[in-house]
């Protein structure tokens, strides 16, 4: 529909090659591969009568479940049609004039700003710093007068993080400059010590902070479209004035509530993330021609170096083996040597490693 | 979340009275009561693996099914998170300055215009005309310079229609005045002869027409959030520039495709609508204190007249019997004597009539 490229285009690849969606190994979308609990089927069937009714416009039951999950009060929580809706909504409602955007980062930020008529300037994350944001430089740059910025933590596609004290340093300064901060924590549950990184416990301290979260990545349900945001109630009331009614569908509500209370999922995810991240990092290091950036998330940014094979060739050869990777050259500052892979289950990860070795080590 | 009142708030009523949602007779939302086919469960279970993938951003398969259903080419069709998303999107994308809005009509039109900074003026539909839009007056008024108008056909909450030749007269004139027309046909499949009323076969003739449709009302799935619009491809490309990605969830896609091909549903709905509309119209006439307006849709606008009971009292007494009606006083021009009821199945309709008789005839 438009020019922004994203991962996870399984439909178009399936159509192009005549594959079934189920047989594609999709490393291009950063989704938790931890299998969804079988009970989801029962949850949906039990609640199917609800598709004949409008969703609760205030989404009280889902927000109550999120209050328990996050430890934040229900008044500080809103839900959306994926985090994507909330990105667009926050920008529309807060109506900034000029935004500072660290890049490379998720491309919908820029589109959401531009379609809302916001002037966008970029703050480059440096390759030589492994794309970690330099706080001193960033604060210095904020002095130039921006009323909006978006930080993604961990950052997509680089996998880098800012710790809590670093973020609070930015937020305090941003507050003094009347700069709103949209903090995207949609990947934060993949990090090892969420408490060291997340700012959700600090929302009441700030009048310029909106935190984004989603079920999409961590709970692995991109098809259902479910995100949420946390902020102080006064700021959220500004968003309410602009949010479209009934934007979250009932099936997403029921499945979301169920997943928040499903303990086995969180524990399995935690174990899986650590094990497979370590395993894949080591395995990727053994492949010629790859520079692998350190990550705190469930994906790796990788650069092709010292190899004759081009990214387009690599991507095509993998597609022929039903493996999708994410060409990262559509991210600002990244060129045609960068790609991103999600961390998946062991079997899938082994398949990827095997193919990469075949193509790059031989 | 905001001040606009809608029907269908079963969750809040269930909570207020301690009812189960399933036991509420909801006449407040205009949903087709024709039962959804049991096969929907199988459709969802068969496609449940798709919730782990992003939806196809271009929604090719759903738009193809809609092309077959509507007889319009796929390039002329876009889908949305309910018709609501498409109302907001059209206004944002076309960015009008000044809109003329016939009232009373669906209240989200006004909210969508106002939140997008559009100046709104009202064109009153007259009670003495049974709220039918007077074409001559409307065209005269359009001369005053409006770049946007929204027509709802049949109109919610009045049930009135404009026929095809009347609409084309408006569209031709609107075109000469550079006025975009958003034509909301979300209730049109409840009318007896859709072909006499709908403009979907005429979209290629106009460069100022967007037609809204939805699964919400006719296919009775408000909980899934699924709408679509039809227009010429050039106009739709303007919308594409602003539409948020993945706004329709995968379960809605699968169920929507299934329902479009499910012939039994359409036939049963057609039969039901005519039979129950005629039945309910007659039965309502026999109740004291009600003025019932003629309708072409699946709902009646009703006015309390010559009775001591107030609408608030009536509404409360019905709620205590687990029956919801729609207080229509939140619609512009309508006061605290107007309410709207959906046409439901015979058993439910009989229950409503029985209660109304008890409260008003005794």
Short overview:
The structure is a homodimer of 362-residue chains. With 362 residues, chain A is α/β, with parallel strands linked by helices. Chain A has 13 helices and 13 strands.
Main sheet overview of chain A: 7 strands, mixed
Distance N terminus to C terminus of chain A?
A: 39 Å
Radius of gyration of chain A from the CA trace? 20 Å
The unreliable regions of chain A are none
* Secondary structure tally, helices of chain A: 13
Strand content of chain A is 15-25%
Strand order of the largest sheet of chain A: 2-8-7-6-5-3-4
- Mean pLDDT of chain A, nearest integer? 95
- SSE string of chain A: HEHHEHEHEHEHEHEEHHHEEHEEEH
Identify the most extensive interface between protein chains: A-B, 61 and 61 residues
Helix content of chain A: 25-40%
Chain oligomer state? homodimer
How many beta strands in the DSSP annotation of chain A? 13
Q: What class would the helix/strand composition of chain A place it in?
A: alpha/beta
Which word captures the global form of chain A? globular
Report on this model:
2 copies of one chain form a homodimer. Chain A has 362 residues and is α/β, with parallel strands linked by helices. Chain A is 39% helix and 16% strand. Chain A is built from 13 helices and 13 strands. Chain A has helices spanning 10-17, 39-46, 60-70, 82-94, 107-115, 135-142, 164-176, 194-197, 233-240, 250-260, 263-285, 311-320, 346-360; strands spanning 25-26, 77-80, 98-103, 119-124, 148-152, 180-184, 209-214, 227-231, 290-292, 299-304, 323-324, 326-327, 338-342. In chain A, strands 2-8-7-6-5-3-4 form a 7-stranded mixed β-sheet, with helices on both faces. In chain A, helix 3 packs parallel to helix 10, helix 4 (82-94) runs parallel beside helix 5 and helix 6 (135-142) packs parallel to helix 7. The longest helix of chain A has 23 residues, at 263-285. The radius of gyration of chain A is 20 Å and the shape is globular. The two termini of chain A are 39 Å apart. The model of chain A has no long low-confidence stretch (mean pLDDT 95). At the A-B interface, helix 1, helix 2, helix 4 and helix 10 of A face helix 1, helix 2, helix 4 and helix 10 of B.
């Amino acid at each position: 529909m438009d020019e922004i490229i994203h991962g996870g285009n399984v439909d178009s690849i399936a159509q192009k090659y005549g594959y079934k969606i189920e047989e594609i190994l999709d490393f291009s979308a950063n989704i938790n591969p931890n299998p969804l609990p079988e009970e989801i089927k029962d949850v949906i069937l039990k609640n199917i009568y609800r598709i004949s009714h409008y969703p609760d416009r205030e989404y009280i039951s889902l927000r109550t479940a999120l209050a328990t999950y996050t430890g934040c009060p229900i008044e500080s929580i809103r839900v959306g049609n994926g985090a994507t809706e909330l990105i667009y909504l926050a920008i529309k409602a807060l109506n900034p004039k000029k935004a500072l955007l660290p890049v490379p980062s998720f491309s919908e930020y820029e589109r959401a700003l531009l379609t809302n008529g916001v002037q966008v300037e970029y703050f480059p994350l440096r390759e030589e710093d492994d794309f970690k944001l330099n706080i001193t430089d960033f604060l210095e740059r904020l002095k130039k007068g921006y009323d909006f910025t978006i930080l993604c933590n961990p950052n997509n596609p680089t996998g880098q993080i800012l710790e809590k004290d670093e973020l609070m340093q930015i937020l305090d300064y941003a507050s003094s400059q009347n700069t709103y901060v949209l903090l995207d924590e949609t990947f934060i549950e993949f990090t090892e010590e969420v408490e060291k990184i997340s700012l959700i416990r600090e929302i009441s301290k700030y009048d310029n902070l909106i935190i984004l979260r989603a079920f999409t990545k961590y709970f692995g349900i991109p098809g259902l479209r479910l995100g949420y945001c946390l902020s102080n109630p006064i700021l959220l009331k500004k968003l309410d004035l602009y949010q479209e009614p009934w934007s979250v569908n009932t099936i997403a509500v029921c499945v979301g509530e169920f997943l928040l209370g499903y303990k086995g999922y969180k524990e399995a995810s935690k174990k899986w993330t650590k094990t497979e991240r370590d395993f894949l990092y080591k395995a990727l290091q053994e492949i010629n021609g790859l520079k692998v950036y350190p990550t705190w998330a469930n994906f790796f940014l990788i650069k092709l170096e010292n190899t004759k094979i081009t990214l387009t060739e690599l991507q095509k050869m993998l597609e022929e083996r039903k493996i999708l990777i994410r060409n990262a050259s559509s991210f600002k500052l990244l060129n045609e040597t960068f790609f991103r892979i999600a961390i998946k289950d062991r079997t899938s990860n082994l398949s990827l490693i095997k193919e990469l070795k075949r193509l790059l080590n031989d």
